[in-house]
């Protein structure tokens, strides 16, 4: 992402206060990234919200015409048809290549312009069946936190919007920038898009604490051999129990989670250090540079060297 990136947040009538607030907090001007954030609606002025809170925005729909990214927070009564001029402005933004993002029921607005047809998408789990019924061409996945389809990204309700916005910063500016913002927000640095919105059954709190402690321990020992048996032994449960509960908690198998954690640590080292690819691979527990390159290509569709060049270039441009 080159230069200042313009984000327009479309605050529709009945917008959810937390969804709108997430965008303001995550994309507020910071040293870690360069975003120009604008909130807009059908017209400048007061916009009724939900849950007893309203908004005052400074811009009308014209803000969408200049946006590099358009974000639509959740809003009340998403099944009701939106005004034609709202739909036209969204279509125009998508047609010229703007990145289109929804939080919670904002997915209904993207679906209404046909942007989600043939695509995988999510929304709040309570509204997922409705989205699937109203828009049968959309591949609705109501069980995940967010879905990244490249130009189009959708998230589940409320706090999942934070995860998606942090994911966007990771895409645009790298792991270090995303983690820095997460620290300011006192939010989890990264919850995978595949993580479940809610658990199919309750997990006793002490066991949840144990699993969190094991994940924290694993992050501090990524340079060491880590197996399912090692992790289960640390958590003091059977391998079968550990594997089953881990998938419910994170959306990944333990070894998939470890691999992605290692790739994320490699990304951070490539951004912030002068270690060679072989050194980075050894420090994150991936063994060889060839192994690191393989996993970078599979997970990020790039190479470690290309990743380093891209983010070092952005850092030099920012300074």
Set down the secondary structure blueprint:
Elements: E1 5-10, H1 17-26, E2 35-40, E3 45-47, E4 55-57, E5 69-72, H2 84-95, E6 99-103, H3 107-112, E7 120-121, H4 128-134, E8 139-140, E9 146-148, E10 152-155, H5 160-173, H6 175-185, H7 205-219, H8 228-235, H9 239-250, H10 254-272, H11 277-283, H12 289-300, H13 304-318
Parallel strand pairs: 1-2, 1-5, 5-6, 6-10, 7-8
Antiparallel strand pairs: 3-4, 9-10
Walk me through this protein's architecture:
This protein is of the alpha/beta class and 319 residues long. The longest helix has 19 residues, at 254-272. The radius of gyration is 21 Å and the shape is globular. It has a 6-stranded mixed β-sheet with strand order 2-1-5-6-10-9, with helices on both faces. The protein has a two-stranded antiparallel ribbon with strand order 3-4. Strands 7-8 form a two-stranded parallel sheet. Helices cover 46% and strands 12% of the residues. It contains 13 helices and 10 strands. The chain has helices spanning 17-26, 84-95, 107-112, 128-134, 160-173, 175-185, 205-219, 228-235, 239-250, 254-272, 277-283, 289-300, 304-318; strands spanning 5-10, 35-40, 45-47, 55-57, 69-72, 99-103, 120-121, 139-140, 146-148, 152-155. It starts with a strand and ends with a helix. Helix 7 (205-219) crosses helix 8 and helix 10 (254-272) crosses helix 13.
Radius of gyration computed on alpha carbons: 21 Å
The main pleated sheet reads as:
6 strands, mixed
The helix-strand sequence is: EHEEEEHEHEHEEEHHHHHHHHH
Per DSSP, what share of the residues sits in E-state strands of 2 or more residues?
Answer: 5-15%
Across the major sheet, the strand order is 2-1-5-6-10-9
**Approximately how much helix is present in the residues?**
40-55%
What is the global morphology?
A: globular
Chain-averaged pLDDT: 87
Number of helices: 13
How many strand units? 10
Span between termini: 15 Å
Which spans of ≥5 residues are poorly predicted at pLDDT below 50?
Answer: 195-206
Helix/strand/pairing category:
alpha/beta
């Amino acid at each position: 992402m080159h230069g200042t990136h313009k984000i327009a947040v479309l605050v529709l009538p009945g917008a959810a206060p937390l969804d709108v607030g997430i965008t303001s907090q995550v994309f507020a001007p910071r040293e870690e990234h360069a975003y120009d954030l604008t909130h807009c609606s059908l017209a400048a002025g007061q916009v009724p919200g939900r849950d007893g809170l309203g908004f005052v925005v400074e811009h009308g729909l014209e803000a969408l015409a200049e946006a590099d990214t358009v974000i639509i927070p959740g809003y009340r009564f998403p099944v009701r048809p939106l005004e034609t001029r709202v739909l036209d402005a969204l279509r125009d933004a998508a047609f010229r290549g703007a990145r289109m993002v929804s939080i919670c029921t904002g997915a209904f607005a993207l679906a209404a312009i046909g942007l989600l047809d043939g695509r995988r998408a999510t929304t709040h789990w309570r509204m997922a069946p409705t989205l699937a019924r109203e828009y049968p061409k959309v591949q609705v996945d109501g069980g995940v936190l967010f879905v990244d389809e490249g130009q189009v990204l959708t998230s589940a309700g409320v706090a999942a919007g934070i995860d998606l916005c942090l994911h966007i910063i990771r895409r645009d500016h790298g792991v270090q920038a995303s983690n820095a913002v997460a620290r300011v927000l006192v939010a989890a640095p990264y919850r995978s898009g595949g993580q479940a919105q809610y658990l199919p059954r309750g997990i006793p709190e002490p066991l949840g604490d144990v699993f969190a402690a094991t994940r924290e321990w694993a992050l501090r020992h990524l340079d060491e051999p880590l197996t399912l048996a090692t992790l289960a032994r640390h958590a003091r449960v059977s391998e079968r129990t550990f594997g089953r509960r881990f998938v419910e908690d994170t959306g990944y198998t333990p070894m998939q989670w470890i691999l992605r954690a290692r790739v994320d640590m490699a990304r951070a080292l490539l951004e912030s250090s002068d270690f060679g690819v072989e050194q980075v691979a050894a420090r994150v527990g991936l063994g060889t540079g060839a192994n690191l390159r393989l996993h970078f290509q599979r997970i990020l569709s790039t190479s470690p060297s290309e990743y380093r060049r891209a983010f070092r270039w952005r850092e030099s441009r920012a300074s």
